[in-house]
Every structure is written in C-alpha cells, then in structure tokens.
Write a structure and sequence with these properties.
The protein is built from 7 helices and 11 strands. The chain is of the alpha/beta class and 233 residues long. It starts with a strand and ends with a strand. About 3% of the residues have low confidence. Bound molecules: adenosine-5'-diphosphate and magnesium ion.
C-alpha cells in the first residue's frame, strides 16, 4: 500500500541546509497498522507529511497504492489525498466557523460524494457524537473534537489513515476512546493505519513499530526470546 525508496527531506534555513530525513526505505502492506515512535524533533511529523502527500520529498520515491507521489504536482497530490488518504492531527485542525456536522461533510462535498449530509450524520453516530452535530468546535471537549476529526478523516473511506500524535492533547480516558475508535475503524474498514505516538501502549497496539532517531528510521522487532533488537529497514 505504501512503498518508499530512499526518501530524504532537506530544508534551507537561515543557518544553511538542514537534512531532516536520512534516506528512508520501507513498505507498509494494505490493512497493516504501524506506529512510528521517537524523540521530539527526530523527524516523525516530517515523514508522515511526506507519506500523506502534504509535503514533497527532496529525493527518493513514494508510492501510495501504486501511484508515484514524488512525480506529482500539488494539484495531483491534492486529488490523490482526497481519493485515498485521511489525516488526523494532534491539534484536531477543525474549521472553527463550521459545525461538527459541516466539518465532517466537507471532504465528502469536495470529493463530490452523494448525500454528504447523510453520510456525515451516520459517521457522527458511529463515533458516538450523534447529539453534537450542530455544535461548533469551541463548544466541544478535546476528546469530542478529536472524534469529529476522525469522522472527517473517515468520511471518504480512505484506504490509508495517517495520525500524528492523535492522543497527544487528550487525557487518559479520552485517549483510550480515541485509540479504540481508530483500531475499530482500521479493522472494520480494513484501513491501513500509520500513526506517530509518544505513547508506548498505543504503539504496542499496532502490528509494527518503527523508531525514528535523528532522521533515521529503524524497525523494532521482537525475536523469539522476546528481547528487543533493532533492525535497519
Ligand atoms: N520547514 C522546516 N524548516 C526548518 N526546520 C524544520 C522544518 N520542518 C521541520 N524542521 C525541523 O526538523 C526536525 C524534525 O521535525 P519534526 O518532523 O516536526 O519532528 P517530530 O515530529 O519528530 O517532533 C526538527 O528539528 C524541526 O525543527
Ligand atoms: Mg511531530
């Protein structure tokens, strides 16, 4: 579902060129759940943005479901995102001037889907917020806002869902609800799930764990004796 070949990211800063990501190559299978862990500033969000087509690689190749993201311009990437990708941010990123229902409808309207309002109402129900459709984001708790953001990410039935620290701004109780919801949707819709997290328990719920360290990605594997060792990917 995702294939990357030697992708790197460099940016130009006032102090010169900064290489954020060292060449990274790895694959994610359809339906897999993968956690990316690592210290703050190690490059996790940068990698996720590249994989989701929100940003462009400096070198290397990324294929999403066979489509070469690295060859696309912004408009083509936007279309691919609308078709295949859902994204959940730590800070929710809801449109403050729209109600919960309208926020969820938006991607379906942009994609030209039939009955966006009915779909939005159904999915709002699925995330347990049927009674909150007419509320604005600032009238909702953090956990509720993140559930709206998840509903918005899922309304187009994306094949791949990216989540950047989806529980980073939530308390323990709300985190658990959000996690349960993510894995429920991952399993029921067979969505590929790639998430960044600081939370070791959340990482362990994923089938695979990858570690980012200073722009280098390694796979964390458990061997037969259950001791952890790292293996370059
Ligand atoms: N556009 C940019 N310009 C300059 N530095 C950046 C830019 N984007 C990210 N960085 C730097 O790259 C490093 C990795 O950032 P990020 O991917 O956000 O890390 P993480 O998500 O793991 O905390 C950080 O040191 C950050 O300051
Ligand atoms: Mg980050």
């Amino acid at each position: 579902m995702i294939k990357t070949k030697n992708i790197t990211k460099r940016v130009t800063t006032s102090e010169g060129e900064l290489q954020i990501l060292q060449p990274i190559s790895f694959d994610v299978k359809a339906g897999e759940s993968v956690a990316i862990v690592g210290a703050s500033g190690s490059g996790k969000s940068t990698l996720l943005s590249l994989l989701a087509g929100l940003d462009q690689v400096s070198d290397g190749e990324i294929f999403l479901d066979g489509a070469g993201l690295h060859d696309m311009d912004e408009e083509q990437r936007a279309r691919l995102r609308g078709d295949k990708v859902g994204f959940i941010f730590q800070s929710f990123m809801l449109v403050q001037s729209l109600t919960a229902l309208e926020n969820i409808m938006l991607p379906a309207e942009i994609a030209g889907m039939d009955n966006p309002q009915k779909r939005a109402q159904d999915i709002l129900d699925m995330v347990g917020l049927a009674h909150r459709g007419q509320h604005y984001p600032n009238q909702l708790s953090g956990g509720e806002q993140q559930r709206v953001a998840i509903a918005r990410a899922f309304i187009t039935n994306p094949q791949i869902l990216f989540a950047d620290e989806p529980t980073g701004n939530l308390d323990a109780k709300n985190s658990e609800k959000i996690e349960d919801l993510l894995f429920k949707l991952n399993q029921e819709s067979n969505t590929t799930l790639v998430l960044v997290t600081h939370d070791n328990e959340l990482a362990q719920r994923c089938q695979r764990q990858l570690q980012m360290h200073a722009g280098e990605l390694t796979e964390i594997t458990e061997n037969a004796t259950d001791t952890m060792h790292k293996q370059a990917v």
